[in-house]
Amino acid sequence: MNLQIWNCGSIEPKSITLVEHDSARWLSRDELLQVKWLPADLPIIEKWFQEGLPESSRLR
């Protein structure tokens, strides 16, 4: 499994085409820890919650 992280601007939800998933949704900071994440995803989600999202230049 490969979790890809993208820091992007806001887009219209109707413009998202799902291929591998049944649904998609935008989460606020407060909603991040309310999702049942896979164990491998938790460290990065917790880091985002504590430190905020990285700037796009730091993602490379």
UniProtKB/TrEMBL annotation:
<dbReference type="InterPro" id="IPR015797">
    <property type="entry name" value="NUDIX_hydrolase-like_dom_sf"/>
</dbReference>
<protein>
    <recommendedName>
        <fullName>8-oxo-dGTP diphosphatase</fullName>
    </recommendedName>
</protein>
